[in-house]
Design goal:
By secondary structure, the chain is of the alpha/beta class. It has helices at residues 22-32, 63-71, 90-98, 109-118, 134-143, 149-162, 178-194; strands at residues 11-15, 37-39, 42-44, 58-60, 75-81, 84-89, 102-106, 124-130, 171-174. The chain has seven helices and nine strands. The strands form two sheets. The chain has a five-stranded parallel β-sheet, with helices on both faces. The chain binds guanosine-5'-monophosphate. Guanosine-5'-monophosphate is lined by residues 18, 22, 42, 46, 77, 79, 81, 86-88, 106-108, 110-111. Guanosine-5'-monophosphate (5GP) is lined by residues 18, 22, 42, 46, 77, 79, 81, 86-88, 106-108, 110-111.
Length: 195
Amino acid sequence: MNSIIMKKGLLIILSGPSGVGKGTVRKYIMKHHSLPLVFSISMTTREPRSTETNGVEYYFVSKEEFQRNIDEDNFLEWAEFVGNRYGTPKSYVEQLRNEGKNVILEIEINGAEQVLQKVKDNRVISFFLRPPSLKQLEERIRKRKSESEETIQKRLAKGKSEMEKAKNYDFVILNDRIKRAGDEIVSIIKKFDAQ
Ligand code: 5GP
């Protein structure tokens, strides 16, 4: 009997403090590498930044709609981050992985912990992206020019405590240069997938 067994797609977690450059590294990987990779678009209650489009970076929803999705158990994980909520749609991620597609989650630390606790198959790989220094983290957050001073301070304080969680991940990647960090992640994913 001929049967083709399709491998379940990888679940790739890319986490790290706010402002470390997760989005930039992820976009670099998707643009410059031929890995079949789908970005999981999260839902958030945060207001869109001027550079963001609904359905591209996030699905921007009301607090009520977010709550409804919690009540209906639609999230693989969700977390509150500096006053807003962010969550990963469960069925979308599952469907893509069952189709053999690799899915990348770009999420903060609490959410990453939930995913690592919940998803126990051996096709999960986690990366913690770390900044060269806290000074550089601050510079990156300030460069976005989208947050108030109060929010910047909250994000920085959170970033400092988040750095201690790096040891819970399969790989810690230094984001000194986007290309170098992105290429390192891709070579690890390729090795992992070939096993
Ligand atoms: P930002 O407001 O800067 O876009 O995101 C704030 C933090 O939430 C970032 O660390 C970002 O990676 C994270 N984040 C984005 N989407 C999700 C999600 O679906 N779940 C969780 N737990 N964190 C997310």
